[in-house]
Amino acid sequence: MIVVGAGIIGCSVARELARRKLRVLVLDRQEPGKEASWAAAGMLTPAAESAEALPLVHLARASFALYNEFVRQVEQTTGRTIDYRRDGALEVFFGEGAEERRAAWMALFRDSAFQPKPLDAVELRRMEPALAADAAAGALLTDEGAVDNRQLSAAVAEAAQREGAELRTGVEVARIDCESGRTKGIETRQGRISAKHVVMAAGSYSTQIRGAERYAPTIPARGQMVALRPASRSFGMPVRRVVRGPAYLVPRADGRLLVGATVEYAGFEKAVTPGGIGRLLTDAVRMIPELAAAPIVETWSGLRPDTPDHLPVLGPVDVEGLWFATGHFRNGILLAPATARALGEWITEGKTSLPVEPFSAMRFANRAQTVAR
Ligand code: GLY
Q1: Which domain holds residue 124?
Q2: What is the pLDDT of residues 281-294, one digit of tens each?
Q3: Same domain, 322 and 178
Q4: Whose CA is nearest to atom 3 of ligand 1?
Q5: What is the pTM of this model?
């Protein structure tokens, strides 16, 4: 069994398969967890971040429900401690028309199980005293949290190996090897590796692997990020939990405050730009004015694996033994436990109990065939 990609998705799948007693080899071009898994902010947001993410809600809720156990097991296996919190998130609307904008945002959740709790300006300030004076309307989402994705990705990679998976880095996979509708293995720049099953978890790089692109036409969506180290006298960290407004703010236990993120289609160029970082800083100070004095400690960008319908690509295809677990776009950190569970069940039991119907790994290949006819 080969897993292509050692990001949080590939390593979570590898760990799950190793726990199910399969022999697993994970391949990556570089060190594990150094692409989108490293660049993320680690928000755990099962309520959709936008209307186009609504089809994800059931799977996202299922994954959030698995998260406590997932983190606990990974910590136990590795002896590492992971910065992980489930203390909710605040959505905040500033200035004129704040209440109307909140009403439009709340309408997103009308048919879902989420019941954001509306908050007025006084309640908002009681929860987050450092908010700008014109924070006029908000809502609390209680079932949310955040995890230090860099810590978690490294720990999951180690946990997968401790469970028995082998990890090989510096290996560039060029092609999926199939014959008569069956997977035979993969071809790397260094040679062939045989396997009856191959799981593609290569994120944005899926389109660079021949045989994967028709199922997973991923598109890199660059996200620029900034980390601040606020030195607030009276409150310590100026926000107590994840706060979302024009930007999102994610506090870390180590004293950093992450500010994210742009969504840009700039190919594979991982740059930070004055326009991108400038906008994030302006938005952060607009939300929490005292951040104007906070030292900037890091800027970076990463490539989210987006897809044409912005939804992940999960499960089997029309080539026996070939599986997909990619295209998680803005939700890879959150969806790692459910993706791993789904792939584990599919591969060892033939079906999965998780709500994965909208994410069929055949949907893009089927559409391409229909267009060609
Ligand atoms: N989920 C946050 C982001 O993609 O920026």
Answers
A1: 86-144+220-306
A2: 999 999 999 999 99
A3: yes
A4: 330
A5: 0.95
